[in-house]
Write a structure and sequence with these properties.
Number of strands: 2
Number of helices: 3
Radius of gyration: 26 Å
Strand content: 5-15%
Helix content: 40-55%
Oligomer: single chain
Largest sheet: 2 strands, antiparallel
Length: 109
């Protein structure tokens, strides 16, 4: 005969304590499973948002994705390198803004 199940039964293998000082039977994450990613600089985000509003945004996006490189790590995983892609966004957005500003200013004749 099985014993009745209780919500606070700490002998069951799936039990996870809500109090951090109590015993926790769940396995901790493996170190390589915890990935952290740095957020892009706000200027890069602004450049990307600006370029995505342009009529040829698909071309900018495609080239950006082509510039992302992946570096293999010692443990067999890869780390993405966004340096070239982010520089592309910054320079392209600056050029595009300059072109739009030049085209929108009235010319003196």
């Amino acid at each position: 005969m099985s014993r009745p199940r209780r919500d606070n039964d700490r002998t069951e293998p799936h039990y996870t304590a809500t109090n951090p000082h109590e015993h926790n039977t769940t396995r901790p994450e493996r170190p390589h499973a915890r990935r952290t990613y740095a957020t892009p600089h706000p200027d890069v985000v602004a450049a990307a948002e600006f370029l995505l509003t342009q009529p040829d945004a698909h071309l900018y996006r495609r080239h950006y994705l082509e510039l992302i490189t992946y570096t293999p790590n010692a443990d067999g995983t890869t780390t993405p390198d966004y340096t070239a892609a982010e520089n592309y966004l910054l320079t392209t957005a600056a050029k595009r803004r300059k072109t739009l500003a030049r085209d929108s200013t009235p010319t003196d004749r």
